[in-house]
Amino acid sequence: MNAVIYARYSSDNQREESIEGQLRECKEYADQNGITVVRTYIDRALSAKTDSRPQFQQMIHDSATHTFEAVLVWKLDRFSRNRYDSAHYKRILKNNRVHVVSVTESISNTPEGIMLESLLEGMAEYYSAELAEKVSRGHKENALKAKFNGGPVPLGYRIDSEQHYQIDPVTAPVVQEAFQRYAAGESIRSIIESLNARGIRNSRGNPFTKNSFQTLLKNRRYLGEYRYKDTVIPDAIPAIIDPDCFDAVQRRCEIHRQAPAHNKADVHYLLTTKLFCGKCGTMMAGESGRSHTGTVHCYYKCGTRKRSGKEVCSLKPVRKEPLEQFVVQTALEKVLNDRVIDLLADKLLEYQSQENTRLPVLQAELKEVKRRIDKLVAAIEQGILTPSTKSRMEELEQQREELETSVLQEQIETPPITREQILFWFDQFCYGDPADIAFQEKVIDCFVNSIYLFDDRIVVNFNYPEGGHPVSLEEVLSSFLDGNGAPKKGLLHM
Fold this sequence. Notes:
The protein is an alpha/beta fold. It folds into four domains: 104 residues, Resolvase, N-terminal catalytic domain (Rossmann fold); 113 residues, Hect, E3 ligase catalytic domain fold (Alpha-Beta Complex), CATH 3.90.1750; 164 residues, no CATH class; 57 residues. It contains 18 helices and 15 strands. Helix 4 packs across helix 5, helix 5 packs across helix 13 and helix 13 crosses helix 16.
C-alpha cells in the first residue's frame, strides 16, 4: 500500500508535537504496517480551522492521481478541527479511493463522531448532487455546441474566447510526434525520456509519466471527436491526428496492455485500513494473483507476511469477496432495526451538542445581554434615569446585534442536524443495493470500526458498543462461497 504523510504545526500552541516528531511516528507506523510512504506534505504555523493550507490543498489535488491509497496523520486534528470541513475533504479523498489514518489514536475516532461525519457526508453528497444536476444542464448545452466544459485542456489545444477548441501551434506538433513515434514501434519509456529531457510537459504542466502518456495516446479528441458524458459529436473540433495513425496506435496499445496489472488496478479493496492481522496486529492489504487457468483471485494478506515471509507471520491470505460480503451483511443486520437506530440517533444528537461548544456560549451571552436590556427598559419605565442610561442602552444594543450575527454565522457554518434528518439518513440504508460497491463502501466506512482476522475466526468491531462473540472464519468463507447466505445469526459478532 502506498501512502503520504500530512503534518501540521501551529505556532500558537507550543505543546503540540513538532513536525519532526509527527513525521517520525508516521514513518514508524508505516514501517510496522508494510506501508510505502511516497511523499510528505507539511504546513507550518497554520491552523486546521481554516482550509487555507497550501500543502493540504496540494495533497487533496494530488489524490486524484491515484498514486497513494492513504493519508497518514499524527492525530486526526492535524487533518482538520472542523468536522464539517473534515467530512467535505474526506469525501473528496474517498471518491479518489484514499483513506485518512491516525497513527497515534485508536483505529477510528469516537463511534458517535464517525457516524455524525458519515451523516454530514451524506447530506453534502445530496446537496452536491442537487447542485451538480443544475450545473450539468449548462454543461449539456455547451456540449451540444462543442464548447469547452472545464478541466485540463488536452495538450495540443487551446480554448478561444468563445470557449471553442483551437489547435495550439506550439504543442500540437508534440502530440503528432508522440503518436508517430509510438506507431513506428518506439517504446513509451524512450519517448517519455526524450520529451522530459527537452523540457516538454503534459497538459497539467508536469513531466510525462507512463500513465499521463497513455492517457494522451487514447484521447479521441485528437481525431476531432467531441465527448462529454453521453454526448459524442464527430468532427466537432479541429483534428490533430489522422485516423490511420490513431488506429495504429490503439492496436499497439492493446497488444502491449498488461492484463494482470490492469485487473489489479481496477480492484477496490473495501476493507483497506480497517482489516488487521489478529496474530501480529499489522494492517492487511489487498493483492491479486492469477491461477494456472488464468483466473484472477483477490485476497487480503498480512503486511508482515507480505514483507517478511510466512516464517515471521503465518496468517494465510483470505479471499476478498466472501469476507467483504460478510462484513457488509453483518453490519446491516446489526444496525437496521428500530432499537439500534433510535439509540444511535440519541447518541448523535448528544454528541453534536457536545462537539459544538462555541454556539452554546454565544447563545448564553446573547441571553444575558437581552436580560440586561430588559432590566434597563424596566428601570426606564419606572422613571429611573441616569446620565449614562442612553449610552449603556446603546452599548447593550450593539452587543446584542453582534452576538445575533455571530450566532447566525455559527449556525450557517455548522448547521444543526435534526432527529428527522438522522432517521432519514439511516432509512437510506434500508433501500440500498448490497451488491453495489459504493453502497458497500458506505456501510463499512460508517458502521465498521475494525476487523481482526485469525486462523480460525474473525472479530468485527462496530461503531457502537454492544457485546458478543466472534464468528468462525470457516463458516464465513463457506457460506458466501457456496451461495448459502450469511452465517447463522447465533455466530455473528455483535
